[in-house]
Amino acid sequence: xxxxxxxxxxxxxxxxxxxxxxxxxxxxxxxxxxxxxxxxxxxxxxxxxxxxxxxxxxxxxxxxxxxxxxxxxxxxxxxxxxxxxxxxxxxxxxxxxxxxxxxxxxxxxxxxxxxxxxxxxxxxxxxxxxxxxxxxxxxxxxxxxxxxxxxxxxxxxxxxxxxxxxxxxxxxxxxxxxxxxxxxxxxxxxxxxxxxxxxxxxxxxxxxxxxxxxxxxxxxxxxxxxxxxxxxxxxxxxxxxxxxxxxxxxxxxxxxxxxxxxxxxxxxxxxxxxxxxxxxxxxxxxxxxxxxxxxxxxxxxxxxxxxxxxxxxxxxxxxxxxxxxxxxxxxxxxxxxxxxxxxxxxxxxxxxxxxxxxxxxxxxxxxxx
Length: 369
Known about the structure:
The chain is of the alpha+beta class.
């Protein structure tokens, strides 16, 4: 089992090249891991799309600045109630220009991005592409993957046991509550946690059922180390919208900080049952709980999934945790590789000193054996 973990970890490091590759390439790797061909829910480009070439043509698709226009439709034919919420990977070679209530999303290429393939009859084509990290509409499954000009994304309604990235309560929020919420988000970007707390409380005073405001209030309180207050806010977010995954994942994170491993495990079990593909934290916190409860095989699987799904590189500590899991399983060399990856991604991270100590000790033990 541990050899398998090592192979998967090494393969991911080779394919993703976490520091050498851009987030675009990580997104492309995600598509490869999901299977060959276009991502689910999209219409593939026609054989004549893009720039047709022979096998010797090395032209780089459409020019820099080209528009990539994509249309979002709902499987049940319903009209969108809000414009799609689009997030691109960090360091993307595309930028979001517009997202309309009609479902039209316009991206702009800031670099030369293309894929190529071969259609029936041997005709080769190239198509300018962008990778979308997350595209969400309340009440529907989140999309992640590669898109191209003229493509269509079909979103499927959430199933009974699936969770949502965007809370349906957002649709009912009064304008004043949304403005207060936006001010809170702006304060959070600047890490002004008390100010963010104040704005989220303003939003909640106007609209107490505003699940994302409770969730973000939980974040602001967590950052101020007011963990009990944060848990209370997150519980209220979860109660306001039981299908909203984010506060459940956040609760697991707080429980981990409090070293309440059994509770963290139970909370992450609930999150994982909701298919949280856009929330690598659900897998990371599950792995953390399993590691501390000596469930090493489950911890290894969960931390690997956390690394694979972390397209935004939110959890460099997943590599540190992977190192701990491997070291506990007496896999010294692969553990050292994971600790080194962590240090490359977060040289001044919370666990940097500990990672260096682990590398030194494991290297010594490996040399002595």
